[in-house]
Design a protein that fits this description.
alpha+beta, seven-stranded antiparallel β-sheet
């Protein structure tokens, strides 16, 4: 696989109404509805979108299960949050979580992926803007004081790249390994 290509874990950014209408018709026919009746039902855009959303939800549940085997004591989440009053930097530490636990969002459109630098990331669009997160495993030998130093540097938007690489580990390689993709 090309190293310079992001590897999408899950996304709902690529909704195509007409393609999903065809999928919905095919689903209805496969479940005993006549072709004529299926085409009639599929004229309702809201039914097509509900069908798409339900199927996509099942796919997201599958991805959560795929990543539930990757458990960490601490996961650092660094974010750029698109808010009504501008973009803000945020971060938090998730304690005793799996990567499957990270696949939750209230955003309207979501995408989790491993980028070309092997970072596990999230992009989510909502009515105020776009949120972007990077997830990192906090190394076991990092104490609370060290983590707080990194945390404060992130929030103050200081150059934290050296400490980030010293105190945390990229999650992308483990995720790609889980899917059988070479990093």
């Amino acid at each position: 696989m090309d190293k310079n290509v992001k590897k999408t874990i899950w996304s709902n950014y690529d909704f195509n109404l007409e393609q999903e209408r065809k999928n919905f018709i095919e689903f209805l026919i496969d479940n005993g509805i006549s072709k004529e009746e299926a085409k009639k039902e599929a004229q309702d855009d809201s039914q097509v979108f509900d069908f798409y959303s339900e199927n996509l939800g099942y796919c997201l549940d599958d991805e959560r299960m795929n990543l539930d085997h990757l458990y960490y004591n601490r996961i650092l989440v660094i974010g750029k949050l698109g808010l009504w009053n501008g973009v803000k930097t945020g971060c938090k530490v998730e304690i005793n979580k799996t990567l499957g636990d990270m696949l939750y969002s209230e955003c309207d459109y979501c995408e989790w992926y491993v980028d070309e630098d092997d970072e596990f990331k999230f992009k989510g669009a909502h009515h105020d803007g776009e949120n972007n997160y990077t997830y990192r495993k906090v190394n076991d030998d990092v104490d609370d004081e060290q983590l707080e130093t990194l945390y404060n540097m992130i929030l103050r938007e200081q150059d934290y790249s050296e400490l980030l690489n010293e105190y945390t580990t990229k999650l992308g390689p483990e995720i790609l390994e889980r899917y059988g993709i070479k990093a």
